[in-house]
């Protein structure tokens, strides 16, 4: 039985690096590396959780095509439970072209694809019921379930005794809080990036942003601050946890790896500060390799990474 069910976006990522500017129209430019990887919040988070030793299932939709086969095989190869995965013969698998510059910063060209057609009726409640945590990864780019339908899923999961966590991606449509507001009252933990959270809250400072999001219903807020670490706020405490200094190669999937680290700490029964430190370590390991999951190490190796860098 899985400890975590990750519901959300499943994507195939074609990553090119380093790319500091695009070629002129009609021209060709060479890059040092180009490779196909699994991506998307739900798939990334589920694979990282599995690598950390957490039994994990994924819930989402892919196309009945080559990229869908690739995503499915990568999940299965990583020991993620895939019985909640829906294969859609009418729509292509979601994909991103990921442009990584020499500093590891990423830009994306994204095709929503089959993710847009995941609906409430696609949710495998047998998988959800058997889990301890329902994590939703990719809110705001799941148009078939975003908003009130997603809130219904979260509410039902809470009725069944699950902890519910929520992560977002950048909303290119500009809807932001209009879409997400119904979901926040059912989020035990909301963990967006700072830039996403600022758009949702309409303010800038992390403490103010987190307070607005908690006032909107989230029980706890964990803000991903990139190279500045993370900031967490509950009704009882707030704190900043600095990141681990490493040489970045590729930031793809770092936020999803961070979330997986935090969920792992929660499942271990740790306090939020210790869980956040472990999440920072997971994110640091992720950024040290190309792709969303290649840099991830086992739970024990991640603890050793923390010990070495803390001593240094």
Main attributes?
34% helix; alpha/beta; 4-stranded mixed beta sheet; UDP-N-acetylmuramoyl-L-alanine:D-glutamate ligase; 10 helices; 6-stranded parallel beta sheet
Provide an overview of this structure.
By secondary structure, the protein is an alpha/beta fold. The chain has a single domain (4-22, 34-311), classed as UDP-N-acetylmuramoyl-L-alanine:D-glutamate ligase, CATH 3.40.1190. 34% of the residues lie in helices and 24% in strands. It has helices at residues 41-51, 66-77, 125-129, 148-159, 177-180, 194-201, 206-215, 254-267, 272-287, 299-311; strands spanning 4-8, 11-17, 33-39, 56-63, 81-88, 95-100, 106-111, 133-139, 163-168, 189-190, 221-224, 230-233, 238-241. The strands form three sheets. A six-stranded parallel beta sheet has the order 5-4-1-8-9-10, sandwiched between helices. The radius of gyration is 18 Å and the shape is globular.
């Amino acid at each position: 039985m899985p400890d975590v069910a990750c519901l959300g976006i499943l994507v195939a990522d074609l990553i090119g690096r380093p790319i500091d500017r695009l070629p002129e129209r009609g021209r060709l430019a060479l890059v040092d590396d180009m490779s196909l990887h699994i991506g998307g919040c739900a798939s990334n988070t589920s694979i990282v959780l599995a690598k950390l030793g957490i039994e994990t299932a994924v819930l989402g939709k892919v196309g009945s095509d080559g990229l869908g086969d690739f995503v499915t095989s990568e999940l299965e190869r990583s020991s993620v439970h895939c019985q909640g995965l829906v294969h859609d013969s009418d729509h292509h698998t979601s994909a991103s072209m990921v442009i990584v510059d020499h500093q590891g910063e990423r830009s994306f060209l994204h095709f929503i694809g089959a993710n847009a057609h995941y609906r409430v009726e696609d949710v495998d409640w047998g998988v959800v019921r058997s889990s301890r945590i329902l994590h939703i990864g990719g809110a705001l780019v799941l148009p078939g379930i975003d908003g009130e339908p997603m809130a219904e899923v979260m509410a039902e999961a809470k009725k069944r005794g699950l902890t519910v966590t929520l992560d977002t991606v950048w909303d290119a449509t500009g809807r932001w809080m209009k879409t997400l507001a119904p979901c926040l009252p059912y989020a035990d933990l909301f963990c967006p990036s700072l830039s996403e959270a600022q758009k949702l809250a309409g303010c800038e400072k992390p403490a103010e942003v987190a307070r607005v999001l908690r006032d909107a219903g989230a029980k706890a807020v964990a803000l991903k601050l990139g190279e500045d670490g993370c900031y967490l706020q509950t009704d009882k405490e707030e704190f900043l946890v600095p990141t681990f200094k490493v040489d970045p190669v590729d930031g793809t999937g770092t936020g999803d790896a961070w979330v997986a680290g935090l969920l792992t700490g929660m499942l271990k029964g740790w306090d939020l500060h210790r869980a956040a430190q472990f999440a920072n370590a997971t994110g640091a390991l992720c950024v040290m390799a190309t792709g969303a999951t290649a840099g991830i190490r086992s739970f024990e190796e991640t603890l050793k990474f923390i010990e070495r860098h803390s001593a240094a």
